[in-house]
Amino acid sequence: MDTGSEVTMEHNRHHVSLAEAFALVPREQFLPADERRNASSNVPLQIGDGQTNSQPSTVSDMLGLLDPQPGDRVLDLGSGSGWTTALLGVLVGPRGHVTGVERHRRLIEQARMSLRQADLDDVDTCDVEFIAATPGVLGLPEAAPFDRILVSAGAGALPSELVAQLRIGGAMVIPVDGEMLRVERTGSADDDVTVTRHGRYRFVPLIRD
Question: Active-site residue numbers?
Fold first, then answer.
């Protein structure tokens, strides 16, 4: 049921794989009308406000590294069109929760509309919400800790305030200085992390204004 900021979608009974999630959540539904003809192309596409819908291979790589589990609470930072947020909603299933945080209010409203129109009524997914970023704040510290954090914008350095929003044992996938990192929080201190590196990618910059 749509509450204006949240859409609840629950029906089917099984947790879907990443490949199934891509089949169930159509990219074109989350694109502007003039870009939908390009939905099958493995390229980033413009969605307005200087933002892009990442190419499917990059989204697949990031979600594979993130490895969201059924029941996880997930923060999707820089949710943009809402496509990855919806994919995450399918992957964590009805016991999970996914929050997309975005700076641009027009994109938030468009993502909510796209989610309503995506015809996911028969998909076993969770509560998915889109909210506006707070100026000067990275992430959503008041709702922490999260099991998983996905960051779809490039940071110059690993943001300690996002690490702090992970539960111990949780993981974040984030591009830092052009390199994709998987960061697992292993303890309560800022530097209690295990970082693995997964190749070079290009993203719009991570901004906290």
Answer: 54
